């Protein structure tokens, strides 16, 4: 009998005021790419933030996989929650200014999560920064530049390098390609897909665009008014959407 691996992330019957309905649950498996899709205001970012350890649910539990088994992260003391999140999760925001320190160089931004996780060897940290710069197709000669000197697409790649440098189990991305030209979006998604396969990191990606989900996701969850209304592989969802909210998203693809 086929046995599924233990999830890296479990949301068990969570809720958050009226933004997320009571009893919202899902799991994320190792190496899986799961997209949360829905129209504006559906509750995607709220759910992502709860999953990533950034927003405490009013009810329910969020479990992260750790060396000692699943941990209910919001039952940890605040400092332990921060440490667990720093080890386990990488965050990529829609707006690079939400995660990058614009007053620090690109390299300093990328190595920060290593120092946050206890790295004390500067040379080793800089070698990692160099590795991730190259992996994200960024010019290593520009590692000393401030992030504001990079284009929008490059700033998103800086965020991704920073989010992956410490080897998290889960990468949480909130609309990472919004505002970028179509060709830049496609390039970024293809880079992300390649890095996901190389590293085996599980990805939870928020988007309102099913075309993005089709390019990158193994599974899609459709949210509507804070509820999970449908869940399917992207091709199945696009070919045969059942819920009206899913049908609207499919119609918007044309
Ligand atoms: N700080 C807040 N206080 C109260 N309500 C909020 C707050 N932030 C968001 N909301 C509301 O909660 C609902 C869900 O918000 P959320 O940002 O999670 O949705 P979303 O699907 O990510 O939307 P978008 O695609 O527009 O970012 C929306 O109706 C939004 O207006």
From TrEMBL:
Keywords of the record: ATP-binding, Nucleotide-binding
Residues covered by the ABC transporter domain: 2-250
PROSITE patterns documented for this protein: ABC_TRANSPORTER_1, ABC_TRANSPORTER_2
Pfam family, one: ABC_tran
Entry keyword Cytoplasm: no
Taxonomy, superkingdom: Bacteria
Membership in a protein family: Belongs to the ABC transporter superfamily.
Record-given protein name: Putative phosphonate transport system ATP-binding protein
Gene source species: Rhizobium rosettiformans
């Amino acid at each position: 009998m086929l046995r599924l691996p233990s999830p890296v992330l479990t949301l068990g019957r969570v809720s958050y005021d009226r933004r997320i309905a009571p009893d919202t649950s899902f799991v994320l498996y190792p190496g899986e790419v799961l997209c949360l899709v829905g129209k504006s205001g559906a509750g995607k970012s709220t759910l992502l933030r709860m999953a990533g350890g950034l927003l405490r649910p009013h009810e329910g539990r969020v479990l992260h996989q750790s060396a000692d088994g699943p941990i209910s992260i919001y039952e940890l003391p605040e400092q332990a929650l921060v440490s667990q999140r720093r080890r386990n999760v990488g965050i990529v925001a829609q707006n690079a200014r939400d995660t990058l320190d614009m007053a620090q160089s690109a390299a300093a931004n990328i190595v920060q999560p290593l120092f946050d996780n206890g790295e004390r060897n500067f040379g080793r940290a800089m070698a990692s920064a160099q590795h991730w710069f190259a992996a994200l197709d960024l010019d290593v000669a520009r590692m000393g530049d401030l992030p504001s000197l990079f284009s929008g697409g490059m700033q998103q790649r800086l965020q991704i390098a920073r989010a992956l440098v410490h080897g998290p189990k889960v990468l949480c991305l909130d609309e990472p390609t919004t505002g970028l030209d179509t060709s830049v979006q496609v390039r970024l998604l293809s880079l992300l897909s390649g890095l996901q396969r190389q590293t085996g990191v599980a990805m939870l990606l928020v988007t309102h665009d099913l075309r993005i989900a089709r390019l990158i996701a193994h599974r899609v969850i459709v949210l509507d008014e804070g509820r999970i209304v449908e869940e399917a592989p992207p091709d199945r969802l696009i070919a045969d959407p059942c819920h009206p909210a899913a049908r609207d998203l499919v119609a918007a693809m044309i």
